[in-house]
Specification:
Elements: H1 2-18, H2 22-33, H3 38-43, H4 53-90, H5 109-123, E1 127-128, E2 134-136, H6 137-140, E3 165-167, H7 172-181, E4 186-195, E5 207-217, H8 222-237, E6 243-250, E7 253-262, E8 279-288, H9 290-295, E9 304-311, H10 312-320, H11 333-336
Parallel strand pairs: 1-4
Antiparallel strand pairs: 2-3, 4-5, 5-9, 6-7, 7-8, 8-9
Helix pairs in contact: 1-4, 2-4, 5-10
This protein binds zinc ion.
The site of zinc ion (ZN) has 8 residues, from loops.
């Protein structure tokens, strides 16, 4: 019986040594050491042995069991380490591989201009006011002193929603809302989207952006308007930039002026950008019409104000030398990535 056990041990140790996987090792454990395993089945015959033989065989059987267990355990460690090595080898990182390219988005040129202009005016003490894109006819035209027969009121120029609402044609209704609702003095700019019934071409888009400014208080003068705009264009286009105010007519301001700046490309000498004139028109402005103040509940005998407005697309096209407004809204990344 002792010989049987020792033969079994030798056979088992050889099998364990040759095991290729942990699963295989596990099945060897069951085969030799399990409840129905080979050692157990040999020990079942112990009953046939004499009282002297029994402890001797029991001792051998335990030694065999221990030898097999420790052999299985050390083989198991060996196999584990091997598997880990294989895994590491298969997951090795190739540091020479090109990395993933992260595409970082950027602001649309229109947003860039709005941000830049807003920042300049905030530096001058203005705050930002916003309003709805669907406006009342009252806020968009009537309160702004637009004559009932003003051409901009035509169906062919304005998108009407119904008999009272329209898509705002300018950001000026934000000024009306501010004057009606805020306390004086007022010092705001209002950037935003506007809509007009225009067929798209190189310089027209039915959707476009404006930035308007409004200052209302006691003793607000045209000199302050000029000083504010001079300061603004110098910050936007450079310190050497000069302004030129040309008389104009807007229903909501009196007097009104269009504002030109010296061409920032040629400095005023004349070039294709300024059509050889040396000046570029960028703004409309003026002193707020007394009727507009009155319409908004402000007494023009006590208070005065100035306002100005500019087209964001025009500024973007000038600054980035874009020759077609439609490029700004086609969302072609090849175009937009340039800015
Ligand atoms: Zn020029």
């Amino acid at each position: 019986m002792q010989e049987k056990l020792l033969n079994l041990q030798e056979a088992a140790l050889n099998e364990i040594k040759d095991a290729q996987s942990i699963e295989q090792l596990e099945s060897l454990r069951v085969k030799y050491l399990g409840k129905k395993g080979e050692i157990t089945s040999i020990l079942k015959e112990m009953g046939k042995l004499s009282a002297e033989e029994r402890p001797v065989i029991g001792k051998v059987a335990n030694e065999v069991r221990e030898a097999l267990e420790s052999s299985i355990n050390s083989k198991k460690e060996e196999l584990k380490a091997l598997e880990q090595q294989k895994q590491l080898a298969s997951e090795v990182i190739d540091v020479t591989m090109p990395g993933k390219v992260f595409t970082v988005g950027k602001k649309h040129p229109i947003t860039q201009i709005i941000d830049e202009v807003t920042e300049i005016f905030m530096g001058l003490g203005f705050s930002v006011a916003e309003g709805p894109e669907v406006e009342t006819i009252e806020n968009n035209f009537d309160a702004l002193n637009a004559p009932k027969d003003h051409p901009s009121r035509d169906m062919s120029d304005t998108f009407y929603v119904n008999s009272e609402l329209l898509l705002r044609t300018q950001t000026s209704p934000v000024q009306v809302r501010t004057m009606k609702n805020e306390e004086l003095p007022i010092k705001v700019i209002s950037p935003g989207r506007c809509f007009r019934y225009d067929s798209p071409d190189a310089t027209h888009s039915p959707m476009f952006h404006q930035i308007e400014g409004l200052v209302v208080g006691k003793d607000v003068t045209m000199a302050q308007l000029k000083g504010t705009l001079d300061n603004f264009v110098q910050k936007l286009f450079g310190d050497a930039t000069k302004t030129k105010f040309r008389p104009h007519n807007f229903p909501f301001t009196e007097p009104s002026a269009e504002v030109d700046v010296t061409c920032f490309k040629c400095g005023g000498d004349g070039c294709p950008m300024c059509k050889q004139e040396g000046w570029i028109e960028i703004l409309g402005s003026g002193m707020v019409h007394p009727n507009v103040l009155r319409n908004c509940g402000i007494d023009p005998e006590i208070y005065s104000g100035f306002a100005f407005g500019m087209g964001v697309e025009r500024l973007a096209m000038l600054k980035y030398e874009i020759d077609d407004i439609r490029l700004l809204f086609e969302n072609d990344m090849r175009f937009l990535n340039q800015f």
